[in-house]
Amino acid sequence: MTWNQCPRHAKIFHFKIDERLKVKSLNSQYLSRLDHIRFFAAFLVVYVHTYAASGGLNYAGERNLLERFMLSGNTGVSLFLVLSGFIFTIISNCGKKEINYNTFIVNRIKRVFPLMIFVTILSMSLYREVVTFNDFMSVFLFSNIQTSPIFKSFGQTWTIAVETQFYMILPFLLMFMRNKGVKYIFFMSVFWVVIRIILVMTYRDTLGSSPGVNAYYYLTMIGRFDQFLVGMIFGWIYSNFKSYISNLPILLFSLLLSFLSITWMTEDGMWSIFGYKQLIYSYIEAVAWGLVIAAYASSSIKIPSIVDRSLSWLGEISYTQYILHILVIDFVLKNVGFLHISDNISMNSTINFIILYPFIIAFSKASFELIEKPFLELRKKYIY
C-alpha cells in the first residue's frame, strides 16, 4: 500500500491526548518548572565548554565532588533528551487525546529549524570552498554526520538531529503507549539497550571514534533512543502517580541519586570506555534524570515568584544558549583571552565562566527575539 492509498485517518494520525497538563504553547498550559530544567540542562553544557576553553580541564589536581559533577556537563544533553520524551507524554496524557501529525511536525520545524538554518548559513559561508549540496541537506535530519559543515563550527547541533529523528516517530510511540500501555515503551527501551550492546561490542574495532568518546553511538540514536523512551516512562509516572512523588523526600532523593550516580558513572567511562556496564550507564543516567524531572515538576515546594520567573526566562532561551554559546566562547578565546587571576587553574575557569555567562545570556536573548520568536508565534494548535 502506498502513502496515497492509506486511509485519511492514517495520514493525519489522530491520537488522543488530555490537556490537563501542558507546556507553554498553543497546545499547552504553561508549566514553568520544565523551563527551569531546560535552563539547568543548557547551563551544564555551557559551563563545561567554557571551563574547557579557559584551560580548566588541564588541571591535574584533586577536584571536589561538586566540581566533578559539573564537569560531567555532557549529562545536560541527556537531561534535554529525557525531558523531550517527558514533556510530550504529559502533554498527551500518555497518548489519550488527538494529535494532528502534520501540524505537529510543522510546529517542530518552526521551533527547531530557524536557528538551525541560521547557523547552517554561517557554516556554509565559512566553509564555502569545500561544502557540497549534500552537506547542506544533511543538516536537517543528520546534522550529527561529522562531514557536515555545521558540525565543524557548531558541533553541539548533533543533538538536534536525534531530536528531529525522535519527533518523526513520537506520535506513533504515543499511539502505541495508548493501545499497548506503558509496558510497550519500557520493553522497547530495554530492547534498545540490548541492541546497543550487540552493535558496540561487535563492531567496536571497526568503527571510528573521537578521542575519548565513542562517537558513533554517543552522537546517534544508538546511544540516545532509550533516553527518550525513559523520559516517556517518567511522563507516564507523572501523569498517573503525581501525588505519590510530590513530597520533599522524593525530590531530595532524586537530586542526590542523580548527583552521585552521574558523577561516578562519568568517571567510570560512561561514554569513553567499551564495556558492558558502560553501555548500560546511559540508561541509568536517564532514569536518574527522569526521576528528578517528575519529582521537581510535581513538587509542592513553593518557589518565590522572582526566582520562578527568572529561571523560566532563562529556560525560554535555553535552546539558543545551547546552539550559540560556542560563538561567544570562541570569540573571547581567540580575540580577548581568558583571565588568569589565580594560580589555581580550576578556580580561574570558574571565574571566567561567571564573567562570560551574562554575555552569553544577552547574546542568546537577542538571537531568540530576532530569529526564533517570530517563528514560534506562527505555530498552530495540533491537539484536539
Description:
The chain starts with 7 loop residues before the first helix and ends in an 8-residue tail after the last helix. By secondary structure, it is mostly helical. Helix content is 69%, strand content 0%. Helix 4 packs across helix 11 and helix 9 runs antiparallel to helix 11. The protein has one domain (13-376). It has helices at 8-12, 32-53, 65-70, 75-91, 101-126, 133-142, 149-153, 158-180, 182-203, 215-218, 221-241, 248-267, 278-298, 305-316, 318-336, 345-376.
Order of helices and strands: HHHHHHHHHHHHHHHH
Assembly context of the chains: single chain
Total strand segments: 0
What count of structural domains? 1
- Structural class by SSE content: mainly alpha
Count of DSSP-assigned helices? 16
Mean pLDDT: 85
Q: How many angstroms does the end-to-end distance come to?
A: 28 Å
Proportion in helices: 55-70%
Shape: globular
Give Rg in angstroms.
Answer: 21 Å
The biggest beta sheet reads: none
> What portion of the residues fall into strands of 2 or more residues?
under 5%
Low-confidence stretches: 1-23
